[in-house]
């Protein structure tokens, strides 16, 4: 199992990426794992030595460029052909890595994912999701969280299927409850999109559709998987992230609110492409990198993307 | 100043409505105020006596019907002509009350507002807003929060103007900063609606447009007035409300999170109609009713709806 990591992505790269690798290896004794680290060799080697990363666990692929957080994704990928992200996707396209992780430019990661590896046949558009900490201790999933700001109802129906598969295989939720994010409980509520999506979701035999969920249900256990277009989903996600910052700034130390530290979830996988691509927050620290590796390993071990493909094929 | 109150609206009516009247009158010594209470006289009179509401401050208009929370708004208003909401709007249309307050069926209140009193000339659609407690102690405004699930960019531009006027005259914010709710900071980000609304807001001389705000900015002080369509706004509002419930259930007693108790804001006024109509939450208690009266009084005293009309006329 070869997992590629963009060591230059994120605000604290490459230090936190190296520390994340260290953390993952300390806590996991997985024989078959090999890490392929893309980045500036001159920066990386001293750090890898200082943090005593076992040499048999990784190889460095030296790259000379970095795509910055605010660069235009397509332009940057085209021009910076020796950037850690561009080279990572070249390795992925060539089958030299099985998964690719980055906390760098989200747009570049998305463009790379969609053009370097195949979108699953039948998938209208890939999607990105986010973990949502539920009050009862379970782990919810919200999607789309920003990749698809405008959606057709058929896309929401596919997000539901992909989210349910992910929830089942990665979070271990048996028969996940799928809810449509909406402005009211009853069928018929909502904007044009939600009104059109509801009957499709209701008729979809591949999911356990429980109807509409509202903003008040994001953190309760009404649904395990919550589906919406990427505009609303992105606003919800960033609001949820801000709750942790508020708790910190208010000096509130509460076990539930501590679960809003999105660092512990590591990153968001792209669903609907053929191989695991995991995108982390720009502010990712070691724990986030370690958890991204963990999610990639679990995605490969469970073949969750194969299950997604199968589920989409059966729709 | 005659303020009408639907005493039968809300989960705890009429008791909490009567207690709310009591609370308002205890804390405010406003000579010119007269309350017109719509509801079941047999239920109301004993409560009004028990809570010693001064007889010169109110009159009861006896009604025999109640529109339940889940009734179809238009149908209910048409059929239940002697309901507290229907009679209230009749009084409003006849000029016998200057403002109308209810914690009852939101849809019926909206339909009543739009068909009994005039929509301000030039307003495409009225809107409802919500107070958002900001971390720095100031009071933000979010609109639309559910009346207009699908919007045109021109509507967002009008919401911005109406919200800015409300923020200025009711919250006392000088030159309120107006932000467009979006998925990124830069111009050009967003769904089709947000992309189209941005240049209109930028060109709008009547407001102090500061650009996009994101989910993470809902509770910070980047913008005083945050504009979006009613789908996203409704999800944001209900999520914000749930933060208070979470704090309660987690036994977190924090001054900032306590401001998420939406009871203290009383209700949401309809903007874009000619007279104050204030809609409260179904779970409104005495404080919410007292605050709804307070908002109605302030709206009348500042003639905020006249200012809205003026601002829309100048667009």
Q: Could you explain how this protein is built, in words?
A:
Two copies of one chain form a homodimer. The longest helix of chain A has 20 residues, at 230-249. The model of chain A has no long low-confidence stretch (mean pLDDT 95). Chain A has 315 residues and is α/β, with parallel strands linked by helices. Chain A has helices at 15-27, 41-50, 73-79, 84-93, 106-116, 153-170, 192-203, 230-249, 255-258, 286-302, 304-313, and strands spanning 2-6, 34-39, 58-62, 99-102, 127-133, 139-143, 177-181, 208-213, 225-227, 268-271, 277-279. Chain A has two domains: 1-123 and 272-304, Isopropylmalate Dehydrogenase (3-Layer(aba) Sandwich); 124-264, Isopropylmalate Dehydrogenase (3-Layer(aba) Sandwich). In chain A, strands 3-2-1-4-11-10-5-6-9-7-8 form an eleven-stranded mixed beta sheet, sandwiched between helices. Chain A is built from eleven helices and eleven strands. In chain A, a hairpin with a 5-residue loop joins β5 (127-133) and β6. Chain A binds chain B through residues 135, 146, 149-150, 181, 183, 190-192, 194, 214-220, 228-232, 234-243, 245-246, 249-250, 252, 254, 256-257, and chain B through 135, 146, 149-150, 181, 183, 190-192, 194, 214-220, 228-232, 234-243, 245-246, 249-250, 252, 254, 256-257.
Name the features:
homodimer; 315 residues; alpha/beta; Isopropylmalate Dehydrogenase; 2 domains; 11-stranded mixed beta sheet; globular
How is this structure best summarized?
The structure is a homodimer of 315-residue chains. The first copy, chain A, is an alpha/beta fold and 315 residues long.
